[in-house]
Every structure is written in C-alpha cells, then in structure tokens.
Design goal:
Helices cover 39% and strands 11% of the residues. Helix 3 links the parallel strand 4 and strand 5. The protein is of the alpha/beta class. Helix 8 crosses helix 11. About 5% of the residues have low confidence. Strands 4-5-3-6-7 form a 5-stranded parallel β-sheet, with helices on both faces. The longest helix is centred in the N-terminal third of the chain and has 27 residues. The protein is elongated. It is built from 11 helices and 7 strands. InterPro entries: Nod_factor_sulfotransferase (IPR052796), P-loop_NTPase (IPR027417).
Length: 340
C-alpha cells in the first residue's frame, strides 16, 4: 500500500516576471483614471467633439431674494452687453420711470436721486424725437436703459440697485399709453409721478424758460437749471406776460392731462408726489427710497431754485391774472404755496 505525503498535493505555480505584474497594475490604474475623468467631464459640461473640447460654462443661479411674493416681478438681474457686472451680477436691480411735465421740478428731483450711490436715472431720453417715433423705437430704448446698456454721466458702477429715466407726458407717453402700461407691467417697471400742485407757478416757469431759450441771458448760453444764486437771480429778472384770455383753458388742459396720466397708469406699481411737498418735507425722499428699495441716504442737489417768493414778483400783468382767477377753481394758485 502506497502512502502519499502532503507534499504530493502542493502545486507550485511558475513564477511570473515582475515586469508583467507592473504592466497589469499600470493598465488597471489607467482604466480607472480614464473612467473617473469621463465622469468629471460630464459633470462640468465638457463634451469631446472631433478632437476638440467644447467647454460649456454653467452660471450659478443667483439666490432667491428675501422679499414678499408680490415684489418678485420687480426684481431683476440684467446682463449688460457693453460690460460685465462681475461680482455684482447677483445684486438685484429695480426699474423705474419718473413721469412728469416740463418745469415741474423733475430735473431737480432727478439730481437728488442721482446723488444716491445706487440709483441711476438717465435723464429726459425721449426728448429726442427719433426715440419715440413709434412703439418699437420706444421699447428698444427702454430695453437698452433697463439692461444697463444706456451709458450716461448718471450711470453708476456695476452695483446699481435702481435704474430709470425721466419721461415727460408729451413725449409719446400719453400717445402710446396702452402699450407702455403693458410694457411696465410685463417688465416690472415702477412709475414715480411728479407734478406741481400750483399749475400757475409752473406756467410762469415755462414762459420764462421759453424766453431764455432765445434770449440766452447767461452770457449767451441757455440754461434750464442753475447752480448758483447769481445765475438764478439773473434769470428771475425776466417777468413774463400771461395771456389771461387763454389762462383758464390752459390750466384746465394741464390738469386734465395729469388726471388722465394717473388714470392710464393706475394699474402699475407707482408712487405719487407733488413737487411742493418734496420741497417742504424731505421725508418724502425717504418714501421714494423705500419705494425703490435702496438704503436711505441724505440726498442733496446742486441746483438752485430760480423763482422765489410770491408770484406777484414774477409776472408783469399780475393784476389781470388775479382778476381772471378770482372766483374760479384756480383761485388758490394765487397764494404762496411754499417758502423756498
């Protein structure tokens, strides 16, 4: 009988070359590396195509602002074509339009807004007729303003928080009010109404400004607004003659236009201001800053008021004007309405 030792069941494998083992390990590592890289490329949007890498950059969405749901349509994140907002790309921007009439204090009011670090109001853009030729040109202009691509001296840095313009009622605003109201509501534009309570004082300012446009009392230069007491004094020397035959009719037309504007734009988000109230009570500027959701600052303007004191000092035929307005709905315009 034969007995098998334990060594009889041991099979010895032939020794492999160290080079072969290294090649196996290296191949395994390379396969793993290729797989991991392919996963990473898919995640960052890099897709190989025809030997080239087509890199798609995915922008991180801006965080949701902490605001009320009703306020969301009025918060925007414009992407200008003319420059990059860079680190301010997620700073929300609000759109506004100052709706007013000539010689109603809108120029002074706009300088106050532009004194704010985060507000850019770009002036009376639609005074140029081509920009208000039709609804299409109006919308093209507005789009450029609200996309932060309208570059003027009023333009702030990339971190603008509120951007807008000054728009007179007779510059296409009333003519195309239905389309413009729809634009405001669709694009989330807020309206700031600014009118004068005393329409007689406004009329005197209109007549005086019209005269200076031709007379150019300031060293041959026409200025609608002044920045020194001396300039204001020179312009205030002119006293217009008011056509009393047309006076009541003219006042009525202006009153009707402002009433219609308020009616047309009543469905938009808006705030209403009287110029006289802003002059007397600067807390109304706090209301505007709150309306635009910007930090409250002490706003200042370099403009100097031209016509001060009682209107009797600024009209040649004051007695006729008094006689015409006494006993009418406009008699209160004869009174001094503020002291500045």
């Amino acid at each position: 009988m034969y007995c098998l030792s334990q060594d009889s069941f041991v099979f010895k494998l032939p020794k492999k070359s160290p080079l072969v083992l290294r090649m196996v390990v290296l191949s395994f590592v390379m396969v793993c590396a290729v797989y991991i890289c392919s996963i990473c490329l898919k995640q960052i949007g890099v897709v190989p195509s025809a030997g080239f890498l087509n890199v798609e950059v995915f922008e991180r969405p801006c965080p949701e602002p902490n605001i009320e749901p009703w306020d969301i349509p009025y918060v925007h994140y414009p992407k200008p074509k003319t420059y990059s907002r860079e680190e301010c790309s997620c700073n929300p921007v609000r759109y506004f339009a100052i709706l007013s009439m000539q010689r109603s204090g809108s120029g002074w009011f706009e300088t106050l807004l532009n004194n704010h670090t985060n507000i850019s109001s770009n002036g009376e853009i639609f005074s140029v007729k081509d920009r208000r030729a039709n609804v299409s040109t109006i919308f093209e202009t507005l789009d450029k303003v609200y996309n932060l691509d309208w570059l003027t001296s009023a333009s702030k840095n990339e971190c603008t928080s509120a951007v807008g313009l000054k728009w007179m009622l007779n510059q296409g605003l009333m003519k195309h009010h239905e389309e413009i109201v729809e634009y405001f509501k669709t694009r989330g534009v807020s309206a700031i109404f600014l009118f004068r309570r005393n329409l007689l004082r406004r009329m005197i300012s209109v007549l005086a400004n019209s005269y200076d446009r031709d007379a150019k009392l300031l060293n041959g230069t026409h200025k609608s607004h002044t920045h020194s007491p001396k300039e204001a004094e020179i312009l205030a020397r002119y006293k217009p003659v008011i056509n009393t035959t047309l006076l009541i009719g003219d006042l009525k037309k202006v009153q009707e236009m402002t009433t219609n504007a308020l009616s047309y734009f009543n469905t938009t988000r808006h705030i209403f201001l009287y110029y006289e109230d802003v002059v007397k009570n600067r807390t109304r500027l706090d209301d505007v800053q709150e309306f635009l959701k910007v930090p409250k600052l002490n706003l200042k303007s370099r403009q100097v008021k031209i016509h001060h004191g009682p209107l009797s000092q600024h009209v040649q035929n004051w007695n006729e004007v008094q006689t015409t307005l006494k006993g009418t709905d406009y008699e209160n315009f004869l009174l001094e309405d503020y002291r500045k």
